[in-house]
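To the wet lab folks,

You asked to see what we're planning to order before we commit. Fair enough. Below is the target structure as tokens, and below that is the sequence we designed to fit it. If anything looks off to you, flag it before the synthesis order goes out.
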């Protein structure tokens, strides 16, 4: 079974091994303000979502601070984000601020500095959960990672409204809103968002001969704000393939940012 920090990938052309192929990714660069963004509509459930993506980090520079994986913002002081922090040994950070009160927590595992291959990252937001520790769940390569080092409060309050899935909020992939300019330096592939659903890694990945690989998500429920970004159209990198037409607008991303590199197709 894959362990945190390990990466397994078959070479390109192993079509018989992969039941579900992911061929393209998109390259975000922290030297620019590259991002994908859209305005969220009315959610299926504002307090419940699952975010999933395959990501290959390119930045292990310990002088760089937070870099956005996904970020949602409805005003200057109302935001929610998933961050990668090279300056904190590659930890993943989750932060939510709404109503003037902030909740912030860090992953206790410092293994997110691998720049050689794709990692699978999943965040489950479920503030209605009766178990405080399960109100935000982080998974890396199919293995749950414990959050600790919480700031401001020991746990997130039950039924706390998120921002990422709020109507009218700007949803950003690879960066925050334009006022931040903290683009991540990474490749993204097979980016999924399920509004109103709490899925597990086994719903979007599978282990085959000891290798963690993507699984076809088309039979899952995406919800009203859900999306599936395949990055398969170089001229329309933000195209949503979920059937919802929740398309993203590309900023600072041209056709040359599409890359023939993915968890199932190595460049």
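Sequence we intend to order:
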């Amino acid at each position: 079974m894959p362990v945190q920090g390990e990466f397994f990938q078959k070479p390109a052309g192993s079509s018989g091994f992969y039941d579900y192929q992911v061929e393209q990714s998109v390259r975000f660069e922290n030297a620019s303000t590259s991002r994908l963004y859209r305005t969220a509509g009315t959610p299926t459930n504002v307090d419940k979502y699952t975010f999933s993506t395959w990501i290959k980090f390119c930045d292990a520079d310990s002088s760089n601070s937070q870099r956005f994986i996904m970020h949602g913002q409805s005003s200057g002081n109302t935001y929610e984000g998933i961050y990668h922090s090279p300056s904190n040994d590659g930890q993943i950070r989750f932060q939510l601020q709404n109503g003037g009160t902030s909740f912030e927590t860090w992953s206790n595992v410092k293994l997110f500095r691998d720049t050689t291959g794709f990692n699978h990252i999943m965040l489950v937001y479920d503030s209605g959960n009766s178990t405080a520790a399960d109100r935000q769940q982080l998974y890396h390569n199919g293995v749950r990672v414990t959050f600790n080092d919480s700031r401001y409060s020991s746990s997130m309050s039950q039924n706390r409204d998120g921002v990422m899935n709020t109507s009218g909020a700007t949803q950003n992939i690879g960066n925050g809103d334009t006022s931040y300019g903290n683009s991540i330096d990474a490749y993204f592939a097979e980016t999924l968002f399920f509004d109103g659903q709490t899925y597990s890694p086994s719903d979007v990945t599978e282990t085959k001969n000891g290798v963690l690989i993507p699984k076809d998500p088309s039979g899952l429920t995406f919800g009203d704000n859900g999306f599936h970004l395949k990055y398969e159209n170089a001229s329309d990198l933000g195209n949503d393939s979920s059937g919802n037409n929740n398309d993203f607008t590309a900023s600072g991303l041209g056709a040359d940012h599409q890359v023939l590199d993915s968890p199932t197709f190595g460049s």
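Structural context that might help your review: Confidence is low (pLDDT under 50) at residues 1-13. Helices lie at 201-204.

Thanks,
Computational group
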